[in-house]
Amino acid sequence: MNAADLEALYRKYNRRRYVRPDPLECVYDYPDIKDREIAAFVAAALAYGQVGQIVKSVRMVLDKMGPSPRSYLENSGIDHLYADFDGFVHRFATGRHVAAMLAGLKGVVDRYGSLEQAFDQGTGPKDVTYAPALGAFVSEMARYWPENPGHLVAVPEKGSACKRLFLFLRWMVRCDDVDPGGWELMRPAKLVIPLDVHMYRVCCQLGLTDRRQANLKTAMDITAGFAQMVPHDPVRYDFVLTRPGIRGPW
After folding, report:
1. What's the CA gap between 157 and 169, in Å, rounded?
2. How far apart are CA 226 and CA 228, in angstroms?
3. Interatomic CA distance for residues 231 and 224, integer angstroms
């Protein structure tokens, strides 16, 4: 499969009607960017496991937050967060993990005004990708955690591919028929491929990496390969290449 084949795949299948089932479908419900960025972070954080259960868990959390996740965070103290999500379970994540994560998001929003502004603060002019900024963003979130949110929020410094965090960035920075976008301070050219086992196997078959682990170094390697095809948008084909692993063959 060459660049022309990938572009043909994108033009044919990069459509919103092919999104479901996916946690991204929950993000479309928020026209206000200040609500959408919080909903998207929640949806991406819970995006592991069986897709039907993922969507169910994301809906449960967002329903608890009401029509405006931003207002919910602004008006919720830590005790309120723990009480609201008491009893929640999504695979390895408990309500305490969710509450801790939301407390981190609340702290960031209270300080910077939005998640976008906070992320932009960690972006260096010489950074080739947003990987360093992502590490800075997670470190800033950690300042407000009452306890560790577990694997809901990956730590880039540990070498994780940070698939769900880079997925969140893809949703917020890109804007097309699938990705809703909304962030205006960042550029798609610096995004990193959200790498999971399925995407790793696909990219190995495409000859984009010969590394043996699906970690951050491999994600950067693959992103560099896609950037040779589409310098301005290296994650352009992420949706269409991963969709068959969720929905089955096109």
Report:
1. 18
2. 5
3. 9
- Position 246 in a domain: no
The answer to pTM > 0.90 is yes
For residue 179, what are the domain limits? 19-191
* Tokens describing residue 138: 């997670």
| Unique residue bearing structure tokens 């969140």 | 168
- Please give the span between the terminal C-alpha atoms of the chain, in angstroms, as a whole number: 15
Q: How many CB atoms lie within 10 A of CB 128?
A: 14
What is the number of structural domains in the chain?
A: 1
Q: What is the pLDDT of residues 167-192, one digit of tens each?
A: 999 999 999 999 999 999 999 999 99
Residue 43 resides in a domain? yes
- The two tokens of residue 27 are 């993000």
The 10s digit of each residue's pLDDT in 69-112 is 999 999 999 999 999 999 999 999 999 999 999 999 999 999 99
Alpha-carbon distance of 223 to 234, in angstroms, equals 6
